[in-house]
Amino acid sequence: MRKISLWLFILTFTVCAARGQDAATQQQIDQINGKLQDLLDAQAAQGKRLDAVEKSISDLQDKLNQPAVNNSASADDLKKLAEQVQEIDKKRQDDNDLILKQIASLGKISGGSGSSHHSSPNVSTNTSDQTATGPQKGYDYTIAPGDMVSTIAKAYRDKGVKVTTDQILKANPGLNPNSLIVGKKIFIPDPNAK
């Protein structure tokens, strides 16, 4: 029985030792699995960072391949632009002069004197060819210092000529009501005259 007990004791000791060894082995396997999982997570994070770096490099390459856009103008560009504007203005003035010459020649052809102003406002009733609606009867008026279109219209209304500032401006195309030229003759239409 002693032998059996001894064998039983050895067997129990061996089983306990094996179980202890299995537990240590299992603990080492769990540690290795944890470290392996940490490495896999780190690798995934590193992959994401590499993708972001590749995208940044690709964006930078695209920017380098695009032509540079410069929104600022140099002094030479501004000088050229100024010259072009002056050339356009000169052409505009030439066209304006040509139009005025043609209007004058049309006035001569239609029997007018070429001038739309005939006499002073107090002298007589005249016809002007300046309006778009055809000849009108009215008065010539020479602009005096301090005159405004509204005061001229009022002065004629006071004399019995029922004219408005709009009618005066329509009868005198190109007249700037904010800058009347002293000594210039304008036509004052008489809406009551037929």
Tell me about this structure.
This protein has 194 residues and is mainly alpha-helical. Among the domains are: 1-62; 126-189, LysM domain (Membrane-bound Lytic Murein Transglycosylase D, Chain A), CATH 3.10.350. The chain has helices spanning 2-65, 75-109, 149-158, 165-171; strands spanning 126-128, 136-142, 185-189. Strand 1 (126-128) and strand 2 (136-142) form a beta hairpin. The longest helix is centred in the first third of the chain and has 64 residues, at 2-65. It is rod-shaped.
How would you sum up this structure in a few lines?
With 194 residues, the protein is mainly α. It has four helices and three strands. A three-stranded antiparallel β-sheet has the order 1-2-3.
Principal-axes geometry comes out as rod-shaped
Please count the beta strands (DSSP E, at least 2 residues each). Answer: 3
Helix content: 55-70%
* Topology-level CATH name of one domain: Membrane-bound Lytic Murein Transglycosylase D, Chain A
Broad structural category: mainly alpha
First-last Cα distance: 157 Å
Q: What series of H and E elements makes up the topology?
A: HHEEHHE
Mean pLDDT: 80
CATH architecture of one domain: Roll
What would you report as the Rg, rounded to the nearest angstrom? 52 Å
Main pleated-sheet profile: 3 strands, antiparallel
- Looking at CATH, the homologous superfamily of one domain is LysM domain
Residue stretches low in confidence (pLDDT < 50, at least 5 long) are 112-134
CATH top level of one domain is Alpha Beta
Strand order of the largest sheet: 1-2-3
- Counting DSSP H or I runs of 4 or more residues, the number of helices is 4
Beta-strand percentage?
Answer: 5-15%
